Amino acid sequence: MALRQEGDKWTAYYARDNTMYGALELGSIRLSFVDRPDRKQQFMDLMRECFADHVQLEVGVRPEWGGPVKAPEHERGK
Predict the structure, then answer these.
(1) CA distance 44 to 60
(2) pTM of the entire structure?
(3) What is the domain extent for residue 33?
(4) How many domains does the chain have?
(5) pLDDT, tens digit, for every residue of 22-35?
(6) Has residue 18 been placed in a domain?
(7) pLDDT at 76 over 70
């Protein structure tokens, strides 16, 4: 999962390792609604669980999530 600030929103994507090319937007929320670390975590957990439910329904296997990884330099905002 990749999370990006885009204007006044925080957007969650399912993306391949090391690229945002072809990323699937999962959802977004106004930054003012997730201005606390616990709220950001709740949003991330919701996006992960919804996506995992969908994958499990489609392919029968629930994805496992690793820890946070910094985006590649070429994918980071300026």
Answers:
(1) 22
(2) 0.74
(3) 2-63
(4) 1
(5) 898 999 999 999 99
(6) yes
(7) no
